[in-house]
Amino acid sequence: MLLAPITLFVYNRPSHTLQSLQALAKNELALQSHLLIFADAAKREEDVKNVAEVRKLIRQKLPFKSVEIIETISNKGLMNSIIDGVTMVINQYGKIIVLEDDLITSQGFLTYMNEALTCYEDEKKVMHISGYMFPIHKKLPETVFYQSTSCWSWATWKDRWAYFNPNAQELYDKLLSSGKMYRFDLDGSNQFISQLEMNITGKRHTWSIKWEASVHLQGGLCLHPHMSMVRNCGHEGSGTSFDSSGLLAIQPLQSYVHVTKIPVVENQDLRERMKLYYALDGKITTTRMMYY
Q1: E strand or H helix at 95, and its extent?
Q2: Per-residue pLDDT at 48 exceeds 50
Q3: How far is 17 from 100, CA to CA, in rounded Å?
Q4: Tell me: the pLDDT tens digits for 113-170?
Q5: For 6-284, which CATH superfamily applies?
Q6: What is the domain partition of the chain in residue ranges?
Q7: How far apart are CA 47 and CA 41, in angstroms?
Q8: Beta-carbon count within 10 A of 248 CB
Q9: Which partner from 49, 109, 134, 286 sits 20 to 30 angstroms from 128, CA to CA?
Q10: Number of neighbours of residue 251 by Cβ within 10 angstroms
Q11: Measured between alpha carbons, how far is 153 from 281 in angstroms, rounded to an integer?
């Protein structure tokens, strides 16, 4: 199995970056994997010190097959950093595993991601592999398909990423004209379309809702583990979102998920449970699933 390169995006949070790297290094496939780290430059004067600390940290000897560091000389912002970085890596390697600096992975994360990329490489309807699963407290099969791409750890292939459209207005218009708007918005839950609208008005500048819409327009589906293999440790206010409950920071992780080919159809039980999650469970936290 030819392993996918790991691409990690970092900025100004040295403690989060350290946690992310330490967890990733415990993965069984770490020593066989190529790691590329994209480090954005400081946007504000108050970020300079922390950015420098992060860059010092990632230059230390790391337990991977190889490590390549790409540092910008001016601030690109998360959206442009991810779009440009993913495009560069995937054009070179043909597939990619994507992480950000506040994501803590389980020890079987890389095994799951690589097995899924291999298993579904020729299933073109499968456009995205997610390492995250919401804390929905519902018994699910080992792996399931769901419409949501989920930006907290993911993987894809070059031919799927080719459908990515960064233009929010074009995506909105296509969803409207194709009659896919209601289903895209998880049957009117207003979890997704509002994110797209905020990008159109300029209130937000995010990347993942555009990937979500791009996948949906192609009729794509996303593979998810039955239980999350990644936890977000950045909800204390250091990043773009905040979880007042603290529940996401202690979400238990699944160590291993066995990947076997299953029918490429959306799991309707999960879809219905996610609608309930957004309506009820998600209100426990102030963020639910933030789109970056």
Answers
A1: strand 95-100
A2: yes
A3: 8
A4: 999 999 999 999 999 999 999 988 889 999 999 999 999 999 999 999 999 999 999 9
A5: Spore Coat Polysaccharide Biosynthesis Protein SpsA; Chain A (3.90.550.10)
A6: 6-284
A7: 9
A8: 22
A9: 286
A10: 16
A11: 22
